[in-house]
User: Fold these one by one.
Assistant:
Number 1:
Amino acid sequence: MELVHEFTLQAHLGETLMPGAGPLGMRAVVSVTGGSAHGERINGSVVGAGADWAVIGPDGYSRLDVRVQVRTDDGAVLYIAYTGLLEMNEAVQRALAGAETSFDDQYFRTTPVIETGDARYAWVNTTLFVGRGRMLTDGVEYEVYRIT
């Protein structure tokens, strides 16, 4: 088994809504306002509705629940949904105030599932992916890997 870099996804983040503390932790809904995907086989723009319905637990980790779409440069639409964990450490707290992090500054891992009806990208429907993330000044960046 190997990890092969498939694409890098940058997501621009917008408004954060805070419904407040619930039974699982503090809920935060963060809108995704745009972005891009760049790789050898997947290149395009983040389009349409998207958000992260995260829960920040008492253990200091945010449980991610993200859904976005990428329209590829050749016109296909890929639906990308992922869950994951983001360690809400000091580096992340600084990033929320406008700084960036490196991939090693926090534990930030995802498990993307990609779907499409476009035959040119049918391979994504039967491929497992994992990702690692970092904070940007206006969003997040993920390196997404295909598991072979």
Number 2:
Amino acid sequence: MDSNGDGKGDQRQVFEDGKIARIEADTNQDGRPDVVQYLSGSSVIRQCQDDNYDGTVDACFEGEKVVPVSGVTDLHQPLGTLDCGGFDPFWKRR
């Protein structure tokens, strides 16, 4: 997703069982996620973050409470470019 309209992906939504399970977000615009938010429905239940931007989760929180680091801890994979693919040949016939 491009949440700020600059044409670059800054969020990755990860689905499980057809629902968004977590959002990986790039908050410093370096192309890599540095925040992971775990969702229950539309509510954030836990947030983990890479405070020094080295690609590894440093801290996790549930609300304002510090909790042990768990879940996705390696954030080295870039978000990548936005690509919606192409048109199916069906749409090219008129």
Number 3:
Amino acid sequence: MINSVTLCGNLTRDPEIRRTQSGTAIVSFGIAVNERRKDRQTGEWGDVPHFFDVTCFGERHEKLAQYYGKGSKVTVQGRLSQSSWTDKQSGQKRSKVEVIADEIELPPRQQGGYQQAPQVELAPSIYEEDIPFGG
């Protein structure tokens, strides 16, 4: 089975950094990806946003949080991961699907033209039991 996803969009919030007990950096952010659709009633084309949570691992990705923020363009390649838990207050089962990024491509932060965006290779994923999901 293949589990691969590539998303191009804009950060919906500033990246957040947290750490596992062993000190591994976990960088999380949201991304909005627009889909062009034609409105059946008006016949006009418009953007419909889709929102995704993204997580990546490793010290070098802290630069993402330092230099890029809400609104920045980003391309993410990775895999989908689903986690589930029971809400402590309501007792209801909850779940979410997020992207675990293997590669992130960011545009350069320079004025006066575009250059080829640097590609950031991510560290291999750590075991899911080390990741504080839904907590």
Number 4:
Amino acid sequence: MILRVFEDKSSIARAAAAQATEAIRSAITMRGRARVIAATGAAQFEFLETLTTTPGMDWQRVELFHLDEYIGLPESHPASFCKFLHERLLDKTGISNHHLLTGNSDPVEIVRLATEAIALAPVDVAFVGIGENGHLAFNDPPADFQTEKPYIIVQLDEACRQQQVGEGWFEKLSDVPRQAISMSVRQILKSRDIICIVPDARKARAIHACFSGEVSPLAPASILRTHSNAIVYLDQHSARLLSPDTLSAFAAST
């Protein structure tokens, strides 16, 4: 894993989009298609805007997998991750081969369908973020590091739900669903490349916990340290609690 620190979100977006573009194009050249996992949330805004406006991308050869979604939330809701992906990725690129986790459908059936689809071949690149509680996808602490199931139904903890209120997706905590479908930690780690984008000062404590302490289910995204081709993109604000020794240790692949 590599940690890279940038001045601001725009700088992160350009660097991460360049890596994503290279990974997608390389997969298409070698295998005729690229299998991609997409995250949602405010941290992805600038990155997806830059990626979707990159010229010369053959989006019809991209197969898209959804990272997580609230259970019981209709796509018309502003917080729907399906809505997010349509507006910020699918509608802009014309990707037609996708596997969305529709929140207001039977979650057991959605998990079954997504599991069958993702098991057909390896994923080339995953776009992920890290939550204020250190979560990876909706794997809140203590995360399940052992399950081999590609998708699981999870209970959302209060810190995770409060983050959604703080970001403006919901008016109050009681409006935030208590359950979600999430890609499992082990499934994320099966991706050939992982691009993790984590700007903003409100993520600084989670970044410190995940990359200065032990690899632990209590800091779910710490598991990224075990992946040989993961790059975590930070800005000066999210990296502010990391020591120079920590930054140096992850300056090259470990």
